[in-house]
Amino acid sequence: MTGTPGTPAPFTADDYKARMDRAAATAADAGLAGLLVAPGPDLIWLTGYQPVATERLTVLVLAAGQEPVLVVPTLEAPDAERAAGASALTLRDWSDGKDPYAATAPLLDVDGRFGVSDNSWAMHLLGFQSELPDTSYVSLTGALPMLRAVKDAAELERLAAAGAAADATYEEIKKVAFAGRRESDVAADLDALLRQYGHSQVDFTIVGSGPNGANPHHEAGDRVIEDGDMVVLDFGGLLHGYGSDTSRTVHVGEPGAEEQRVHDIVREAQEAGCRAVRPGAACQDIDRAARAVIADAGYGEHFIHRTGHGIGVTTHEPPYMVEGEELPLVPGMCFSVEPGIYLPGRFGVRIEDIVTVTDDGVRRLNSTPRELAIVN
Ligand code: ZN
Ligand code: ZN
Ligand code: ZN
User: Fold this and answer.
1) Quick check: helix, strand or coil at residue 202?
2) Whether 57 and 187 share a structural domain
3) Same domain, 110 and 53
């Protein structure tokens, strides 16, 4: 593909109202008095409002049978009023010098149990606990694991567009010079390409060459890439508010026999993980399917992370494809399948696609070739 895909229609106040209603109903079903949503991905998803979390309290209070209320600092109220979901909620502002927890307390059951955004600042949660000592709090994600996990058609369209832009980036990066340049130079190329293909935000551009590839989250650094290096590329960010995240491993010049073999094993593991995706399978089944291939090949101890993570308005979110996660897959869930083998001091290999669960199996949102590409 070339150029930037068309801009999808923005989400409307009705879309956000439907999400808030569903969240409040789901919370009630889970036995919660309500949800306290902090600035961050939950708030973006529920309201379209994206303030920076600060020491001044901003919180969305959701409870079944109650109008959604967004409590904001007075000075930020004008921004909040412009949020796409603002007309579907009531704004309540508090001014400097007032106690924001006392201002919010009348909206809350005095002895209720509330789901709190995972990224809520501890100081704000402590403020509520101090104001209402009989309330209790649980992780919003823990209590409502499916809240953002299943994507609707409009969200899938955005994730597919982000995936296509990441794929276009990979096709272009294979053409740049690797040998003789620093990892950080190739990372800068990845950043520029992601933006050229429409990303508004780049979250990571991992370039792990030679031994650095054995560190799964290696940040691109000063190492000069050499002929003969394996290079792990893992990059992504946000396009139209939804995430991309893909990995491919390339080799500078002709690969050695072991490099090719290890890559073949990871590729087969990634295929096995994707083949295991279908409605009703457990998240851990995806991890088991990929891990079995690597373990059977004798590299089990070198696959040192979970097989995948969810993706949506962030590039890393629940559900996780990890041993012990029994959450069943549901059509519309989107997550990564990204097994790897990491040989300390030598090299690493990772292959990653974003996939979505369909009615009868899986659809990949990344489709660039998965064989070991040779770069210069
Ligand atoms: Zn090599
Ligand atoms: Zn990744
Ligand atoms: Zn990932």
Assistant:
1) strand
2) no
3) yes
